[in-house]
């Protein structure tokens, strides 16, 4: 996580430097009268869309770096990715149980396909897709339940 924090701070710094460079470049470009006078308007040598976009990209990268830094400090320990002597199994937690021969995910995907097809073709197809989606999602969730809530 330490590497991610450092990379996002570097990215934030890059975007802030790029914002300053873009602003200076737009001022120079406007002062040389190479830009059309109708697009920049009177008295506005800065091209605001690019300046604000690059600045907000820097703010977003700084927010992510700050958040990851706070999470890293709150954890109290190092992640396996940050430890040079860590094994591959150290960063491999149990993800849960997934049924190897289940057909339910395919049916859920087909019902989602019907929902999106209905958005493009006709809304009535989406209604059928929602109905099938509820049935298939419940079937997938309770796949191993038999009898009275057996496990």
Structural description of this entry:
This protein is mainly alpha-helical and about 150 residues long. The chain folds into 2 domains: about 1-90; about 105-140, no CATH class. It has helices at about 1-30, 35-40, 50-75, 105-120, 125-140. The model has no long low-confidence stretch (mean pLDDT about 85).
Amount of helix: 55-70%
Terminal Cα span: 38 Å
Q: Please, what is the average pLDDT? A: 86
Report low-confidence residues grouped into runs of 5 or more. Answer: none
**How much strand?**
under 5%
Shape type: flat
Number of domains: 2
| Helical/strand content category | mainly alpha
The strand count comes to 0
Q: List the quaternary state of the chains.
A: single chain
Elements, N to C (H/E):
HHHHH
Kindly provide the radius of gyration, computed on alpha-carbon positions and rounded to a whole number of angstroms.
27 Å
Q: How many strands, which pairing sense, and closed or not: the largest β-sheet?
A: none
Number of helices: 5
What's this, in brief?
Helices cover 65% and strands 0% of the residues.
Characteristics of this structure?
flat; 5 helices; mainly alpha; 151 residues
List the helices and strands and how they pair.
Elements: H1 2-31, H2 37-40, H3 48-75, H4 104-120, H5 123-141
Helix pairs in contact: 1-3, 4-5
């Amino acid at each position: 996580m330490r590497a991610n924090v450092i990379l996002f701070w570097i990215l934030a710094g890059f975007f802030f430097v790029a914002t300053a460079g873009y602003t200076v470049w737009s001022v120079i470009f406007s002062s040389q009268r190479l830009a059309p006078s109708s697009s920049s308007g009177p008295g506005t040598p800065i091209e605001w869309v690019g300046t604000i976009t690059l600045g907000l990209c820097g703010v977003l990268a700084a927010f992510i770096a700050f958040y990851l830094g706070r999470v890293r400090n709150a954890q109290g320990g190092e992640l396996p990715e940050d430890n040079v002597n860590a094994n591959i199994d150290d960063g491999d937690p149990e993800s849960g149980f997934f049924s190897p021969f289940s057909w339910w995910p395919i049916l859920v995907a087909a019902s989602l396909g019907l929902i999106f097809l209905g958005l493009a073709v006709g809304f009535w197809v989406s209604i059928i897709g929602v109905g099938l989606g509820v049935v298939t999602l419940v079937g997938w969730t309770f796949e191993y339940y038999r009898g009275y809530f057996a496990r």
